[in-house]
Amino acid sequence: MSFFDRLKSSLQKTKDQLFGAFEESAAPAASGGTATVGTRTRRIESADALEEALITCDVGVAATDRIVESVRRKARRGDDLLPLVREEILSILQGAAPPPVTGAHPRVVLIVGVNGTGKTTSIGKLANLLKQEGQKPLVCAADTFRAAAVEQLEIWTRRADVGFVRAQPNSDPAAVVFDAIQSAKARQLDPVLVDTAGRLHTRVNLMKELDKIKRVAAREVEGAPHEVLLVLDATVGQNGVAQAREFMKVSGVNGIILTKLDGTAKGGVAVAIAQDLRLPIRYVGTGEQIDDLVPFNPREYVDALFEDAW
Amino acid sequence: MFDSLSNRLQDVFANLGREVRLTPETVEIALREIRMALLEADVNFKVVKAFVDKVRDRAVDAEVLKSLSPGQQVVRIVRDEMLALFGDTQGGLPPVSATPRVILMLGLQGSGKTTTTGKLAKWLVKQGKHPIVVSTDVRRPAAIEQLNLVAKQAGVRAHDPAGNLDPVSRASGAMQEARTLGYDTIIVDTAGRLHIDDELMVELEAIKAAVQPTDQLYVADAMTGQDAIKSAGEFNRRVGVTGVVLSKMDGDARGGAALSVVSVVGVPIAFTGSGERLEDLEAFHPDRVVSRVLGMGDVLSLIEKA
Ligand SMILES: Nc1nc2c(ncn2[C@@H]2O[C@H](COP(=O)(O)OP(=O)(O)OP(=O)(O)O)[C@@H](O)[C@H]2O)c(=O)[nH]1
Ligand SMILES: Nc1nc2c(ncn2[C@@H]2O[C@H](COP(=O)(O)OP(=O)(O)OP(=O)(O)O)[C@@H](O)[C@H]2O)c(=O)[nH]1
Ligand SMILES: [Mg+2]
Ligand SMILES: [Mg+2]
Asked: Where is the secretion signal located (chain A) (predicted)?
């Protein structure tokens, strides 16, 4: 018998026993305090069940505690907590900073994040989205490190039918960004979307490279980069908070693209990030096709967060 | 930031007064801390519950070791249970009698399959093997080029019939080439896919049927959160997993997903990936991952001596 089988059988008997103290202070539900998943509607009637629901979508212990506490203050005995927690999360998400506005041309958008989150794919989709809105994006390949990263991005820009400035392998990423901005000015293209190599936020040297890119961009266009979007993989756990914090510190991240929401993970850590750092989600990725990127809609997201998709 | 589990437990027990012993009540208090620490390390909620139960069972009637404080004693039980979960593994690949050895790489999008394919090829060469790699990823832009470049860096051959965009026939082509030219190991890289994407899971089943792999390595990102049991569980159910590679361990993620994945698939972790370079692959050491999940390095050695 696998550990998982064993854990399944042991789950029932210990439920509640573990959180006894927690539950006493919570508004206890008439039905005994567990989440009831009906055929259509789901009710959450105890702080215990609410905690489980939030932790399970990666909101994290600290943010979950704060949310549960706030909901508990508002709830009365026997209430379904789900609408309350929805409103709570909605207000957290809507309380995040609004997107920056700039009159500068070209607008420079830097895409950053740890390895494999979906940066390159999201640039392809974003270029397509902006083009459909009537803009004329230029995509800049500043990932000069990963094998075939430039080729990958080039294919995306062909699909989106937008301008592309490529880098020589192992050339200086900041130099490519410089070239791209010059090219955008000359060809009247706007915005410039910069793909960067995946890097862990703990790699000091690689993080410095982002700082250099930023400085070069700032020299060429007033206020650039105007948007720095952190690409966060929806499957990420609590490390997402550390990623957001570091990328914010070093590269001035001011928004999030949450990718891979078409899976079973919901990226709940973005709620913790919105709460802690006021970083807004700007776009969400929902697949590998070119039109699988949409502007973030907080209400839809909150609905999806508590949907048993699977 | 995060306080290590042992510090936390030390504090908790210190607050209980000088004469604390492990009683059902004090154990319960310790378990609450353990639960919190594991959740913060991204161990799956259900796995945490089951784990805490096991620790409770053992802690309540643990024989008292005079040399350890109650806090350390609980940590020791937690550590032992975790090591037991990871099993008695040496890391690396188990010996096989079949030739050629066929390794199928599995996993979600972006987890590190292609990079790990290159790392593994390099590792095998070091072991005196003659690997050949093949990409069956005909969907991600430039995925085949990526593997070709990675293979070149690793100094191994990539089977790449120009224009063949059928994943199954690419994989069987590599089998044929290996047999004819005498390669002893084939690593089949696959496209990243979601465990709930039925069409692509069917494709994976077809590749598996064509190459009859000896090893099915699930590549899991060490930064994964609660979802780890769903994805790994479903890959295991549909195609089977014989070993796990935990990638991106070079960051500061606590890596609780390691526990979740191993719990759900019930097989050992074979390797950890610790960087983007091809030499950044290590045979799995359970104790390192345990220290990391628990957020403590030196405490373990202290307990070891008791
Ligand atoms: N299912 C799904 N897959 C996605 C999504 N976005 C990206 N991907 C896939 O995730 C994988 C990694 O995407 P990339 O765009 O290469 O990620 P990256 O961040 O540029 O990776 P590096 O440059 O290597 O750090 C690819 O297989 C993409 O097709 C999404 O929204 N949903
Ligand atoms: N820091 C770090 N990065 C890694 C590690 N393993 C892989 N990567 C990086 O993660 C990103 C994704 O790796 P890939 O090998 O392309 O992942 P994949 O699973 O093949 O992706 P798909 O084919 O799109 O599903 C790349 O930027 C790799 O360089 C690791 O152990 N540490
Ligand atoms: Mg990329
Ligand atoms: Mg790949």
From this structure: none
